[in-house]
Amino acid sequence: MSETQNSPQRPAPDPAAGATVLLVADPGLPTHRARSIEDSLQQHLEEAYHPPIRLDVRTSMLRLRPDGTLDLSEVLEQARSSGDPDAVLLLTEIPRLRDGRPLVAEIFPEHNIAVISCPTLGVLTTRRRILDALMRCTLRMAPTSEPRDAARYARRWAQWEELTGPDDHQLLLGSRVIGGARTVAGMVAGNEPLRTAPKLSSALAAAAATGAFGIFYSSIWSMSMHLTTQRLLLIGILAMCTITAWLIVGNRLWDAPRQERLARVVLLYNLSTVLTLLMIVALLYVCLVVLIFTSALIVIAPDYLAEVIGREPVLARYLDIAWLSAAMGVVAGALGSSFDKDTDMRSLTHGQRERQRRFTEEEVGQ
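The structure corresponding to this sequence follows.
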């Protein structure tokens, strides 16, 4: 279905009345992104429609029914309270697929609602991608008389398809391979690993305490001197991968699909979990290397280091000691996180599934 074809479900807004658009975003990153493009979206709407243009941006969590389908009841209620806008745009952090392809957006003509999935837009030029997706959906739900308006926001990375029959929806689909990789990257960004890492305070404390032994034990100095750079790098990589696996297994973060149709979605969750934890562990490792390296420069006198290792005490020797000590530290850090009852690892990486579980429990409890 070409980008310039308009849906017959809804006539164009009355030019004299302008246009009203309601944008509802999930809490967290989707709301942050919605607020960041609010002014730009307002400007693009004014270029496409006659004024006055009213853009209402709100925050509300899109819930899932126990069977995994979208529950639009709260969004419909917000639309009624907003005066039945010409287009309702819902920006969610739930990754969605259709026949194995990333579902960037889905339009429900019967409700005049478009659901846009943030993770399917990736992490690069996301602001522009979100703006394009929002405008493409708006112009389909409330078409203008100018075909160029819709064509202006067409992009090769996602194409429209239309479902006929009882589910008369319009789907904006990405490619299986590139779109799938983009979705995983978007899910990792949604997990916000840089903001999550500080929550593992017990892991950092245990890692720092263990890594500090490398400063005071000369046997570790000698060992690091007899390891090649390649072997030291391999030790660091193996340590990070091992600890990531430990965190996944110990906190039961790897999920198996209960239904075959959910296998690909669960795979995306698992991949995003692995990559998120790898980024967190790698960040912890780098912080440890810097901390131990700085401490070693202060504590270990160059003359004493040269006497022990029998080599020139150049900075590279201190870095070797810090790298090997950090490998020991991250192992202890993972053990420390296992005993940290204040940190729920599932909530750090599986926000969407926790959301679905909470909704199911609420329904059962009513």
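Confidence is low (pLDDT under 50) at residues 1-10, 360-366.
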